[in-house]
Amino acid sequence: MSLLPSRFIYVCLHFLVLYFQLQESQQSSADFRFYIENHTRNPDDLSRKQVRIYQLYSRTTGKHVQILGKKINANGDDGGKYALLVVETETFGSHIRIKGKESEHYICMNEKGKIVGRPDGRKQECVFVEEFLENNYTALVSAKYKGWYLGFNRKGRPKKGSRTTQRQQEVHFMKRQPKGRLDPLEEFRFTTVTKRTRRARRLKPKRN
Predict the structure, then answer these.
(1) What pLDDT score was predicted for residue 49?
(2) In the chain, which residue ranges form alpha helices assigned H by DSSP?
(3) In angstroms, what CA-CA distances link 164 with 9, 96, 169, 194?
(4) Would you say residue 195 lies in a domain?
(5) Which domain holds residue 74?
(6) Hey, which of 4, 61, 122, 203 has its CA 20 to 30 A from 50?
(7) pLDDT band for position 140 (50/70/90)?
């Protein structure tokens, strides 16, 4: 009869251990999810960043996005000093900040969907998410205003984010190295675009 209490105590202790292990596992999972969400939505200075310098070729204008200061357009020449962009990629996801190398202003989108240049890019309005499209172009959607894209019309003027969709050519860009600069160690795959290749991309391939 003396074995019964001992066995009962052993079973109780076993269940207590399992309970605390489960609680610890759930807490760790919750902490990890919080860490990811916190660093994705509100990255701090301690997060590891990747910095790249390249140009954004606009599909509609055939030129490049340039940051002149508060004003931003897509009429920059290949290799132009205002078309050189410093792109900061956060640790998690494809969240980026885009700063003009010359002007030191960031591309931001305000609550009205207007594209503006700001010297301080720490706010969420200055964060964009890369979306890689099937046609080898890239679209940049606002991290704060869902469904609002960075886009430019045929004259190179910024479009309001509320008037953009992913399918519009106005929001399609290509990453390109500045004219005359080649870096074999660059992680991104850059595409050289000419008037001929630009027209060819709009044509559907023939099937045999």
Answers:
(1) 75
(2) 3-41, 195-201
(3) 66, 19, 10, 25
(4) no
(5) 41-176
(6) 61
(7) very high
